[in-house]
Specification:
The complex is a heterodimer of chains A (234) and B (276). Chain A has ten helices and no strands. In chain A, 80% of the residues lie in helices and 0% in strands. Chain A has a single domain, classed as MetI-like fold. With 234 residues, chain A is mainly α. With 276 residues, chain B is of the alpha/beta class. Chain B has two domains: 128 residues, Periplasmic binding protein-like II (D-Maltodextrin-Binding Protein, domain 2, 3-Layer(aba) Sandwich), CATH 3.40.190.10; 113 residues, D-Maltodextrin-Binding Protein, domain 2 (3-Layer(aba) Sandwich), CATH 3.40.190.10. Helices cover 41% and strands 24% of the residues of chain B. Chain B is built from eleven helices and twelve strands. In chain B, strands 1, 2, 3, 4, 7, 8, 9 and 12 form an eight-stranded mixed beta sheet that branches. In chain B, helix 7 links the parallel strand 5 and strand 6. Classes of the chains: A mainly alpha (234), B alpha/beta (276). At the A-B interface, helix 2, helix 5 and helix 9 of A face helix 1, strand 2 and helix 8 of B.
């Protein structure tokens, strides 16, 4: 209990101090994760929807693969992205290793399957309901996908949130490709890992509490915004 | 579809904002060890260097083995580590050039205050390890190919003990950095070998204390070298040399000597004047 009290005090002091380092770490964490979710959604949503409404041989296998990729181990993704972006790797000339861009790339790989898998499920349910309508009207596939995604937009927010949760809480991949460089690639989670290894458990847990509060805020805001939009346009 | 395109455009803007642009101050990437980072030395040293030269140093702090690997793949400009044989091999194989010795500190043997192996107060690390092996009290090893790990394995060899073969579970491979290894040792009341800097800056000591120190063999030399620009043209040669020269200059050496925790000096500068 003593440890947790210390952590709460540490968290509170950090927040009150308005520490600029903390602010930088928090905004970097959010910036990287939200950017990754944006990219992942722009790939994952259409991909999931397409998978939901098309029938082709091997489709079941594709669904299983996308679902399984939700469990991609971050460390492995980090390692693969590291090898790809390394100066000795195929994309080395870009010089992206140990930059925030590398971290975004790793997280897009981690988050896209989550968004795609959830979107596939949601759109498939909608498709079952409305398929006849669309087919009767002879609407093109792209139009159907857009229309179904729009129709399911409130449920699809959950897909984005699941992705954001994975991104902002993840440490294995970004630690490898970002290098945890102070002021450049140090995020909430890598900072927590560092403080733990320095034995400053109170500070580490304090940062953890702030991270949890942050995730809660994101989810709360999204929830309220969704409600407001629903009320405005029934 | 336009909404989607807009989302991609916005995302790209965010990424470009996050990616360091060319207008930023010059920087170099240095692969170094957890001991220099976690002891707080870099937090003290690098601002002084940046103030004098305007060059930002981005440190990737890992074990010595991994730091050399990062250099080997051309992913940093400078390597700053502590494992002399491995450093010399690194230069020998053409991955690094111009190795310079910068400073030293020392290793210490840390153990529980109850001292079940009765090694407290000794100054002979090898004898102490032999006693720990005889008593089969828990010993937590780094096991991560770091400079500290390699030093520890050398001491076991000198003691004539192969800890991994006479196992009844007392020799425990943590496979992690110095801090996590100290956390583990504290949790299981085990002995471990640590560098003094990390120990002094370590906050979760619980029952741990220094039991053996002052052995000449515990001397821990740090070296710095440039990643070979002939091999990797991306290496920032001029900026890298500026950092190496500053570290080994009177100003840099004095800054290293000035770093203290609780009045105790952590690193002792020992750079030789540049030849030629």
């Amino acid at each position: 209990m003593h440890d947790i009290a210390d952590a709460l005090v540490a968290a509170w002091q950090l927040i009150l101090s308005g520490n600029s380092t903390l602010l930088g770490i928090v905004s970097l964490s959010l910036g990287i994760s939200l950017t990754a979710v944006l990219f992942a959604s722009s790939i994952g949503l259409p991909l999931g929807a397409a998978l939901a409404i098309t029938r082709f041989p091997g489709r079941n296998a594709a669904v299983v693969v996308v679902n399984a990729l939700m469990g991609l181990p971050p460390v492995v993704v980090g390692l693969v992205v590291y090898l790809a972006l390394s100066r000795s790797g195929p994309l080395g000339s870009l010089g992206l290793l140990f930059t925030p861009a590398a971290m975004v790339i790793a997280q897009v790989i981690l988050v896209t399957p989550i968004v795609a898998a959830v979107a596939r499920q949601i759109v498939e349910d909608l498709w079952r309901e409305y398929a006849e309508l669309y087919l009767f009207d002879g609407v093109g596939r792209c139009r159907i996908i857009c229309s179904l995604l729009w129709l399911g937009r409130f449920s699809l927010i959950t897909a984005g949130l699941a992705g954001a949760g994975r991104a902002v809480a993840e440490v294995g991949a970004i630690l490898i490709v970002g290098g945890n460089i102070a002021g450049v690639t140090r995020t909430m989670t890598t900072a927590i890992a560092l403080e733990t290894s320095r034995g400053d458990l109170a500070l580490a847990l304090g940062l953890g509490i702030i991270l949890l509060a942050l995730i809660l805020t994101i989810n709360g805001t999204t929830h309220l915004a969704g409600k407001a939009v629903k009320r405005a346009a029934p | 579809m336009t909404g989607l395109l807009r989302a991609v455009a916005v995302g790209w803007l965010l990424v470009s904002a996050a990616v360091p642009s060319l207008a930023e101050p010059p920087f170099i990437t240095v692969a170094s060890t957890t001991s220099t980072e976690q002891s707080g030395l870099f937090g003290f040293l690098l601002p002084a260097f940046a103030k004098e030269t305007g060059i930002e140093v981005r440190v990737v702090a890992v074990g010595t083995g991994q730091a050399l690997k990062i250099g080997e793949r051309g992913d940093c400009d400078v390597v700053f580590v502590h494992d002399r044989p491995a450093e010399l091999a690194f230069v020998e194989r053409g991955f690094g050039i111009d190795r310079r010795e910068v400073m030293y500190n020392d290793f210490i043997l840390v153990g529980p205050a109850s001292d079940p192996a009765h090694v407290d107060g000794g100054t002979d690390v090898v004898a102490a390890l032999r006693k720990i092996a005889d008593a089969k009290t828990p010993f937590v090893a780094r096991g991560d190919d770091s400079g500290t790990s390699k030093a520890e394995l050398r001491f076991w060899k000198e003691a004539g003990v192969d800890p991994k073969t006479i196992g009844t579970g007392w020799y425990r491979d943590a496979g992690s950095g110095m801090g996590p290894t100290l956390n583990t040792a504290a949790a299981m009341d085990g002995y471990t070998l640590s560098d003094r800097g990390t120990w002094l800056n370590f906050k979760n000591r619980q029952n741990l204390k220094i039991v053996v120190q002052g052995d000449r063999r515990l001397f821990n030399q740090y070296g710095v070298m440039l990643v070979n620009p002939a091999r990797y043209p991306s290496v920032k040669q001029d900026l890298g040399y500026k950092f190496i020269n500053w570290l080994t200059s009177p100003t840099g050496q004095k800054t290293i000597a000035d770093y203290r925790i609780g009045g105790e000096q952590l690193f002792f500068p020992d750079a030789k004047p540049a030849t030629g």
